[in-house]
Amino acid sequence: MLDMMKMMGKVKEMQARLKEAQDNLEKITASGEAGGGMVKAVVNGKKKLISVEIDSTIVSAADKMLMQDLVVAAVNKAMDDADIKAKEEIKKSTEGILPNIPGMDFSSMLG
To answer: Which domain holds residue 53?
Structure first.
């Protein structure tokens, strides 16, 4: 019984560390560009698009801000939808494999 209590303590510690790591992902950023720098994008570690910059030489100034905002919104919506579908697929694929321990939520470990 003592070993089981020790194991449960380790599982809780692992969950706390995973949560901390997931929270820190929002602070990580990465950027990319295309067209020789005419289009630039910044994302965070949670795969959320933070910003898009479009060089004014390829669009009119009046449309630039609206276009950038619409691109960010559309990409984030698509990524949210992909995340939901991926979690559903993982849940379906792992059904019956992960233990069903009361009070333990293993779904957060899946992504």
So the answer is: 29-97
